[in-house]
Amino acid sequence: MPQPLIIDTDPGKDDAVAILLALSAPEIFDIRMMSAAAGNVGLHHTSANIRRLCDVAGRPDIAVHAGCPRPILRALQTVPDIHGEDGLAGADLPPPVMPMAERHAVPALIDAISASDRPVSVACIAPVTNMALACVMAPEIAENTAEIVIMGGTFGRGNITPYASFNIYNDPHAASILFGGEAPVTMMGLDVTRRTMPTPEWCARLAATGRPAARVVAGLWRDPTAFMNDACVVAYLMRPDLFKTEWRHVEIEINDETEMGRTRLIGTGEANVKVATDIDVPGFFELLFRQLGR
């Protein structure tokens, strides 16, 4: 029976790969909804981009809800220089056809998790503002949350500051809420995802399949200079055997502006987060090629 899944996202090139990967596997995932966050680009673009990708995949049945336009306590920092002004530079996609769902993402998340007949996995591949606020408003949803898998964090050098990853830095207070919450959290950090740079040859082979999702991904990586960070989250939910994980005690810096958003390993105290520590890189790219080329 397919696994109930919610995707909270800010597409974004690597988000697009994650979304198309999830949409390629209806036998594995029962996608209950998607929620748009502000992050890589603003909410207007991210909410449109989710729908553009659903159009490509022929999935207008999935409700897409717009969420919070900014972090809880900080100003939004976008990165159009990496993803393009609209977030999907190189994809050559038309404007979305499918409509937005009317409700705000936070109450929609609460209702979708509460009403599910089975525990729901949540792929958080954006700043986690929406999911954190849902857990604050309705902490009881933790009981029906199988796992929250967050793309973010690093124990090495960050990708937005020397200390922090982009998604955590953009809303560290929201991430701290989830890391300290009742729902199980898995951290898919840069220490693992930075191993997922596709080669030009792999992208060319993918494009040669001629499949719509494959052409989109190959177009986004026409110049392979970015990692497929967010796709690791969906790959983990599909094939956890491709990853190694360890339970760790992790805290997020929310006070020191210099190190804001840093994910710090704590040697004492109870483990609170399952941390991805390794990835089968050939297996990861084999999974992507097989699914996107279907």
Keywords:
294 residues, alpha/beta, eight-stranded mixed beta sheet, 10 strands, 36% helix, 18% strand
Written description of the protein model:
The chain is an alpha/beta fold and about 290 residues long. Helices cover about 35% and strands about 20% of the residues. It has helices at about 15-25, 45-55, 80-85, 105-115, 130-135, 165-170, 170-180, 190-195, 200-210, 210-220, 230-240, 280-290, and strands spanning about 5-10, 30-35, 65, 120-125, 145-150, 185-190, 245-250, 250, 265, 275-280. Strands 3-2-1-4-5-6-10-7 form an eight-stranded mixed beta sheet, sandwiched between helices. A two-stranded antiparallel sheet has the order 8-9. Helix 4 (about 105-115) packs across helix 5 and helix 5 (about 130-135) crosses helix 7 (about 170-180). It starts with a strand and ends with a helix. The mean pLDDT is about 95.
Which secondary structure elements does this structure contain, and how are they paired or packed?
Blueprint: E1 3-9, H1 13-23, E2 29-36, H2 43-57, E3 64-66, H3 80-83, H4 105-115, E4 120-125, H5 129-137, E5 145-151, H6 166-170, H7 172-179, E6 185-188, H8 190-193, H9 200-208, H10 212-220, H11 231-238, E7 243-248, E8 250-252, E9 263-265, E10 273-279, H12 281-292
Parallel strand pairs: 1-2, 1-4, 2-3, 4-5, 5-6, 6-10
Antiparallel strand pairs: 7-10, 8-9
Helix pairs in contact: 1-2, 1-11, 4-5, 5-7, 9-10
